Prior knowledge:
Elements: H1 3-18, E1 46-50, H2 60-85, H3 88-100, H4 108-119, H5 123-131, E2 137-145, E3 151-159, E4 165-166, E5 171-172, H6 173-178, E6 182-189, E7 192-200, E8 208-211, E9 215-221, H7 228-237, H8 245-255, H9 259-268, E10 275-280, E11 287-292, E12 297-302, E13 311-314, H10 330-340, H11 347-354, E14 364-371, E15 385-389, H12 409-415
Parallel strand pairs: 1-6
Antiparallel strand pairs: 2-3, 2-13, 3-14, 4-5, 6-7, 7-8, 8-9, 9-10, 10-11, 11-12, 14-15
Helix pairs in contact: 2-4, 3-5, 4-5, 7-12, 10-11
Amino acid sequence: MKLSSLRHIFIAFICLSSQLSCGTAEECRDSMYPPKGPTFKGNVTWYTLNLDLPPSERWTHVIKEKKAELVAMIQAIKDLAGGFFHGKLIHLVDNELPLIVDTLPYPFNEEIKGLAAVSGVPLGEVVLFNIFYEIFTVCTSVVVEDLKGNIYHARNLDFGLFMGWDRKTHTWTITEKLKPLVVNVDFKRNNKTVFKSTSFAGYVGMLTGIRPKEFTLTVNERFSVDGGYIGILEWILGQRDGMWMSFLTRRVLENATSYEDAKNELAQTKLLAPAYFILGGNQTGQGCVITRTRINTLDIWEIALKLGRWYVLETNYDHWEEPFFLDDRRTPAMKCMNKITQANITLQTIYDVLSTKPVLNKLTTYTSLMEVSTVLYGKCSQPKICDISNIAPALKQKNATKHVIVFFFNFQLYLM
Ligand SMILES: *[C@@H]1O[C@H](CO)[C@@H](O)[C@H](O)[C@H]1NC(C)=O
Ligand SMILES: *[C@@H]1O[C@H](CO)[C@@H](O)[C@H](O)[C@H]1NC(C)=O
Ligand SMILES: *[C@@H]1O[C@H](CO)[C@@H](O)[C@H](O)[C@H]1NC(C)=O
Ligand SMILES: *[C@@H]1O[C@H](CO)[C@@H](O)[C@H](O)[C@H]1NC(C)=O
Ligand SMILES: *[C@@H]1O[C@H](CO)[C@@H](O)[C@H](O)[C@H]1NC(C)=O
Ligand SMILES: *[C@@H]1O[C@H](CO)[C@@H](O)[C@H](O)[C@H]1NC(C)=O
């Protein structure tokens, strides 16, 4: 059976058994910005990361502050995994995964070792935390051009499906544990900002980032038969010519110097897992979705004003195909974008789109709004990346009556 159809079955199963309102969209929201309400926990904290330090020392100050949250997160993963495999999985993680760390490319190997040393979390568990996202992240990303030629880029990062449904609070366990780990990081070299990112404390790859005045980048997972499990398995078995998705994203943010440069690298580097790279530039027309297989690029879909395409929006399905009907976040998001129109698009109105269910959902861990250009922008002029986590404004949900099985789908497949 195809992996994607397996996934569809599980989504359907979760929808039915938890009475989540999968597949139903609400009216487009408006006036959601700035974020407020009881579920808004405040602005995400900024940290500076000094790239001139040895990799093993770079994250020390972040981990010192976030250690308790990191330990709680990893404990939650262990609780889930322990229940499922009678503890065998964690034994494997603690004993086998540390061996992988030395095969990871520099500087990621050294940074991960440093994280383990400072946090006191076993090395294998930090490695697990760092390869987690290669496997199951569902997201919505959009790059937009307004009538003046300003480029905006925004995303919801949704994570934690199948990772423990809490029947009391009606939330996904891992998603909730991840929220306190969301941090904004300003990566500096010679005391100057190289790029900025919304990330998780303890995670060295990047999923969301901006090189101010140059480009913005997000990555969404792409499900495919030739998926991440196979790539990771090959890596473990010694075939290591592909690049980890989130490591490539970080390398591009750190070392590519223009939109074109970034686009070439994202399109041409061999990967461990298929992916969508969503890239925004600093000039009119510079916004694209790169649809990747592990080996090559299937398609580059760009903003094309002449064709009336003033934004490109990606969830987790190829843009030329219909999304799975129970997981259709694309249609409601596009409906709201089109309703706003290019004339009225701003970071605020994009935030409205990302706050509309089911684009916003119980897996949404953070929303990032990015503006690459030098044009100052209202409420989020300084710094020009405004990130909001813990948003979830009044997600109304029927009480779940049935039990959702905690299914460690991903790791099972990867261990097989
Ligand atoms: C969040 O940041 C914005 C802009 O930097 C500021 O105006 C606002 O007061 C902050 N909100 C909180 C709750 O700290
Ligand atoms: C970097 O900036 C800080 C504060 O602005 C300053 O104290 C420090 O000396 C600078 N370091 C270097 C290497 O220039
Ligand atoms: C970026 O380039 C520098 C200089 O070549 C190198 O030291 C660094 O490791 C690179 N960063 C990444 C993430 O590969
Ligand atoms: C856009 O990016 C290019 C390449 O990094 C840079 O040379 C140029 O100055 C940037 N343009 C603006 C308006 O910032
Ligand atoms: C833009 O927003 C304003 C104020 O909400 C509204 O009056 C106007 O009709 C909108 N324009 C378009 C083209 O939708
Ligand atoms: C949901 O559950 C809570 C507590 O378990 C209860 O107070 C509330 O009335 C329930 N809501 C509905 C709509 O059943």
